[in-house]
Design brief:
15 helices, 4-stranded antiparallel sheet, 18 strands, binds zinc ion, about 575 residues, 8-stranded mixed sheet, 4 domains, alpha+beta
Length: about 575
């Protein structure tokens, strides 16, 4: 089997870190229980386990009521359903006439137009034949005739006499009677997905019930008094009746079709749909005209009605829900990601100052396996002889490395192996180290800065360098240089020791021949001594004073130094 195929027979999974901690363990379980409770409550509250289906419906309405009114010029007029429900009914709505302007016995002819500001004339010259506009009742004949004793208007060819009244009568002619009209609303609904059929006249409602039921004490009664509807829409019937308007009757079916909790009843609510106040001056209310025709002595006559009224729009909406295993699985699946919040929160908590620096470092080292990448050269690890801990700093091209603020401060990790070996090696080499200060060890901190000494140097041993990222001293505060320590020479510069170390790595090589190898080994010795094991994703930096000493001891033949690269 080829190698490429073998990779198909592999499975990768995540590696986890287990932290034994009572605090973190109980926190994890508490959070998980809280999340579980939240998920369950949301599921029951919103019925997330149900499949939903929107309602399909049809509506019919049946108006009842008779009104007797005094119409000026006509006397007593009786209005029954045919009269007041208007000529045509729209789908899912019904209309009730509440106010009316009647112009009786119109016939085709010529008569004076209704006077308005711009329609008053003095002579025939003010009128033009054939003219009309939006407000005209007919087409002008070109003559100027008397409208009444005082005014003259242009004569029009129209249904005469023309309708003279423009404002509806107040109070509305039918308001008092129409308030007591009743309407029976029949609403059949269907939920196609569940093949469920129902109507708002429930099976238990019989003829006697419907005749006697009253909405005041029975919210399910399908017979409504118009006055009650308008009142529940928070409107005044007498005011609304004058100019008319539109009232919405909303029927909401919110059905639960689960066997144990089956419930499917309509809920009625009412509100006004047209503009009430904001458009007061611009064509308020609802009105339209219709005419009834008859002939008198062979002449066609008509009675014109301008009807004001209330249109009731019945709107049905709703949904039904029923348990669905698929919905339940989908819901549970969508909530699983909430458990990740526990991990995010606890990981964040570990990163905060609630935990000791060592514990944080320990957790993060166990959790993360850093791999040197392009960032490797950006994070530098630095150690000072007068500070116990390691600093991680970001490489800067603008600031001297000595002054860059640390990203983090870590405890130093000792590397015992190689040093133990080195220390054991020393006596055997016979070069007993002189454990005495090389220059000024133990003396007081240097009081004055030397003349050629760079500003960032605090030990007095560093030379200046053109690169900011190499400007690093061995100290944070003024004091003696690390190179003056009695251990510096035997540990870092001792040629026999470095040769032994190189031979330890390459038993048959000739370490003495390469000063470059010795120099790099000296750098490694310094790092192992002062930085221990630096974090794997950082680049250790050797202070300038030590670099100077090491380069002086093991100079490059061509004077070219590449800088230290850790193995
Ligand atoms: Zn220095
Ligand atoms: Zn120094």
């Amino acid at each position: 089997m080829s190698c490429r195929l073998l990779t198909l027979c592999q499975y990768e999974t995540n590696k986890l870190v287990r932290i034994n901690s009572v605090r973190l363990g109980s926190l994890k379980w508490t959070l998980n229980v809280v999340i579980l409770m939240f998920i369950c409550i949301m599921m029951l509250w919103n019925k997330q386990y149900q499949e939903l289906d929107p309602v399909v419906s049809s509506v019919t309405a049946k108006l009842k009521g008779v009104a007797l009114t005094q119409v000026p010029g006509l006397g007593d007029v009786v209005w029954d359903v045919v009269d007041y429900s208007g000529p045509a009914q729209e789908k899912n709505s019904f209309f009730v006439v509440t106010n009316v302007i009647i112009t009786k016995n119109q016939k085709q002819g010529k008569c004076a137009e209704v006077p308005r500001e711009d329609k008053v004339c003095q002579t025939d010259k003010d009128c033009s034949k054939g003219a009309w506009d939006q407000h005209s009742h007919g087409v002008q004949t070109g003559a100027c005739v008397k409208f009444d004793v005082r005014r003259k208007t242009c004569e029009v060819s129209a249904w005469c006499p023309v309708e003279t009244r423009s404002n509806p009568p107040r109070p509305a002619l039918l308001a008092a009677a129409a308030e007591n009209f009743t309407v029976l609303i029949k609403n059949n609904i269907r939920f196609p997905a569940f093949n469920y059929v129902r109507r708002n006249i429930l099976p238990q409602m019989n003829d006697a019930y419907l005749r006697g039921c009253h909405r005041g004490d029975d919210a399910l009664c399908p017979i409504f008094r118009l006055g009650d509807i308008v009142h529940q829409a928070r409107e005044d019937f007498a005011v609304l009746a004058v100019e008319g308007g539109v009232i919405g009757i909303q029927i909401n079916w919110d059905c639960n079709l689960d066997r144990l909790m089956e419930r499917c009843l309509p809920k009625y609510s009412f509100r006004r749909l047209d503009e009430k106040e904001s458009n007061r001056t611009l064509y308020p209310g609802l009105n339209f005209r219709f005419a009834r025709y008859h002939s008198e002595n062979g002449v066609e006559m008509r009675t014109l009605y301008k009807a004001f009224g209330i249109r009731f729009d019945v709107m049905v909406f709703g949904k039904a829900g029923k348990f669905s295993f698929i919905q339940l699985v989908v819901y549970i699946g969508s909530t699983l990601s909430y458990y990740a919040l526990t991990t995010i929160f606890i990981d964040w908590l570990i990163g905060t100052s609630c935990y000791k620096m060592e514990a944080r470092q320990n957790y993060s080292e166990r959790k993360l396996y850093p791999c040197p990448g392009s960032l490797f050269q950006c994070i530098l690890s630095v150690s000072f002889v007068d500070e116990d801990q390691l600093r991680l700093v970001r490489k800067s091209r603008k600031k001297s490395l000595q002054n860059v603020k640390p990203l983090s401060v870590l405890p130093r990790k000792e590397n015992n192996g190689s040093h133990l070996r080195a220390m054991l090696e020393l006596p055997k080499q016979g070069s007993t180290p002189k454990l005495t200060p090389v220059n000024g060890h133990g003396s007081k901190p240097l009081p004055q800065r030397g003349p050629g000494e760079p500003v960032w140097c605090l030990c007095g041993g560093c030379s200046s360098t053109p690169l900011h990222q190499e400007e690093l001293c061995c100290r944070r505060s003024r004091g003696p240089c690390i190179t003056s320590s009695p251990l510096f020479h035997p540990l870092v510069l001792s040629r026999p020791l470095l040769e032994a170390l190189l031979r330890y790595r390459d038993p048959l090589g000739d370490p003495a021949g390469s000063t470059d190898a010795l120099r790099h080994c000296a750098y490694e010795q310094y790092i192992a001594w002062r930085l221990g094991v630096p974090p794997a994703d950082s680049h250790p930096v050797v202070p300038r004073c030590c670099v100077d000493k090491i380069r002086a001891e093991f100079p490059s033949l061509d004077g070219d130094y590449k800088g230290f690269r850790p193995r």
